[in-house]
Amino acid sequence: MSFLEWFNRHIAPRMTALGITPRSVTLEVRGRRSGKPIRLSLSPARLDGKEYLVSLFGEQNWVKNVRASGGKAHIVHGSRKRIQLAEVPIDQRAPILLAYVSERAFSRSSKEAARMYFDLENPTLEDMKRIADRYPVFLIELRQAQPSVVSCEAAEGRPE
């Protein structure tokens, strides 16, 4: 394992979970085979007041784990939030991918991000439509907290 792989696997998720990196978060999802929590750092795309996770390298393990978990996961960035990830249909991904390029966290410019991740010099919406099937995208939705108090009727199996 290279230093960069080690850093990305062990250090980066801790830094983003603490909220040190302003544009990145730690995604925590249950491993589909191990059942153990898997954590990785991602930079959400923002568009029209919504946030999305984009898999820049296609069908990665985190994408498979999210699908296997039915979209249930957590985002950690200072605090831990229960989320539901809903996969965005291919025909709706292009504007999200374009938004991702324009505000990429770890590149100096949107042009650099477009070149680095999508192999495009100055991407347009049409360019993103052509490549959208290669990049899974998930809408981040907050899940309601489970009630912590259970009534006596529910505890005994009777309807409330």
Q: Would you mind describing this structure in some detail?
A:
With about 160 residues, this protein is α+β, with helices and mostly antiparallel strands. The chain has one domain: Electron Transport, Fmn-binding Protein, Chain A (Pnp Oxidase, Chain A), CATH 2.30.110.10. The protein contains 6 helices and 7 strands; from the N terminus they run H-E-E-E-E-H-E-E-H-H-H-E-H. Strands 2-1-5-6-7-4-3 form a 7-stranded antiparallel β-sheet, sandwiched between helices. Strand 1 and strand 2 form a beta hairpin. Helix 3 packs across helix 5. The longest helix has 16 residues. The C terminus is likely disordered.
Short description:
With 160 residues, the chain is α+β, with helices and mostly antiparallel strands. Helices cover 33% and strands 26% of the residues.
- CATH topology label: Pnp Oxidase, Chain A
The domain tally reads 1
CATH homologous group name: Electron Transport, Fmn-binding Protein, Chain A
Helix content: 25-40%
CATH structural architecture: Roll
- Mean pLDDT figure: 82
CATH class category: Mainly Beta
